[in-house]
Amino acid sequence: MRRDSHVEGLLKILDALLTKRPLVIYGLPGSLRTRLTLLLCAHSSPFAYVGTGRHSRVVKSLSGVKFYGTVSFYEELLNLFEIIGLVKLTEIKGLALDEFMANLVPYRATLYESYVSRMAFTELQLLKLAAEAGGKVLLVCGEDHRTGGPLGLRYVRQLKPYLIKTSIEKDVLAVEERDIGDPVFVLKRIEVSASEVVSACETLRLG
Known about the structure:
By secondary structure, this protein is of the alpha/beta class. It has a single domain, classed as P-loop containing nucleotide triphosphate hydrolases (Rossmann fold), CATH 3.40.50.
């Protein structure tokens, strides 16, 4: 276990991982996943933030971060195509997608699961293209209680990412790197003050 007293130190560690391969941040609601993601976007700017589902309303004014609020899967794909172009033009360094598969939930009521799976894999292919173009790729997901990993783990694994789980106990934010093969297994753990993360967001006017 490692205690890192500064959020900036944590962001540097996460950005170093993000430079090597895609990063998946996941956890329960209220575990500061989105706030940590926005701080990382600002730290790694210029960056694109794609908010899906309830996060489509997270449209902020943040220097170096281009915000996309998407309310449909089709719009989400169009945004990814645009972002890939910006990555190729080196106008942005990468993208954060928050929250993966959220815009696919409505389709599960009307389509066979095999069709929904194909849609998810299509999006993953676009994320791979962004990475292959030299962009950093960051996904934010909910937590699957059954596996201890992110929701949609069988899809997420296609990116061969680092898994980062967030959790909060009292005022301590635990940030753990988990094994992609067995998400229950903790590889590394860093603890920071949760109030420090919130304060850093308020400083950047992220709310």
